[in-house]
Design goal:
Blueprint (H helix, E strand, L loop, with lengths): L6 H16 L2 E6 L5 H16 L3 E4 L25 H9 L2 E5 L8 H7 L4 E5 L12 E3 L6 H12 L5 H14 L10 H12 L4 H9 L4 H11 L3 E3 L4 E5 L2 H6 L12 H4 L6 E9 L2 E8 L5 H6 L4 E2 L3 E6 L3 H18 L6
Parallel strand pairs: 1-2, 1-3, 3-4, 4-5, 7-8
Antiparallel strand pairs: 6-7, 8-9, 9-11, 10-11
Helix pairs in contact: 1-5, 2-5, 2-6, 5-6, 6-7, 6-8
This protein binds manganese (II) ion (MN).
Length: 342
Amino acid sequence: MTHRIPPQRVEAAARLYETIARAGSIVLTTHLNADGDGAGSQAAMASWLRSRGQEVWIVNPTRFPPVFEFLIEDADWIVDAGDPPAREITARADLAVVLDTGEASRIVRVKGLIQHLPTVVIDHHLPGEGPLGGDGLRDSEACATGELLYDLIQHAGDPWTNPMRQGVYVAIMTDTGSFRFSNATPAAHRIVADLIAGGVDPEEMFRRVYGSSPARRYRLLAATLQSLEVDAQAGIAWMTVPSDAYDALDSSAEDLDGFVDYPRNVEGVEVGLLFRQAYSGATKISFRSNRYVDVQKLASHFGGGGHARASGALVREPLDTVRQRVIEAARQAALSERPARG
Ligand SMILES: [Mn+2]
């Protein structure tokens, strides 16, 4: 049983493919602090388009995460948005493809670089408040952006190479929490089965992504776990990343990957929250839920968004003032959305 493009995506995939096929030079971008889905999808898409003889560049708002660099066939394809070549490349490109977000606010400084270009979006997030225009392939039913990219490449009928398979595999592996979350759908497993049959080594992918954390990540986790608080009555738990430890350890955003799962996984907890000071005067919040609270809705009250079980927000207010309001909103949501027993 192989995966087939869901009927609701066929038309969009066909249109998007026509647009992409016409472009000689293409810029790929994703949201700030690229995760495995954003970075893996970019890696796969870059390999795919290069194999077709098209010119492709990856220009992200923040540094391409080193942990996913092994997925990129040629390091020269990555161009820093702040460097002069980014300006030249985007000036003469024909098309911009935004992956794993549809929000202008999440590609920050890349927005200015690509605003003169026709832009398409490949994304599986629910639409937020500042959607990017343009055609594309958007479906919040997809487990990951990598699933949509798989469909697009299948539609194109081009041969799969190993770098293409590995990028899509890592996209799906990371966004499904290594096939544990509710988005580990039959489609996700069918696609991954196909990728493994094609030569992807699951053990190697897992080790390269999760089995090579710098020691500072665990030291920061130890410091952050000290702050764990639980409201057992409401079923919420939260932690705060200590800024002093973050700075002292010379940490980066990718070190925090998975931290929010600790409060979420506390027995009896429905909503897990992670707070951190993003830069002076701004607070980053990660929201997770287990069964019934829609954290996309919760995050949208704070200008954020994402998915029903995993969302995020960046609030331009100091940590101490925003934290209490978020905890209170989460408490209300957990209590009011709790299903009646019976
Ligand atoms: Mn994603």
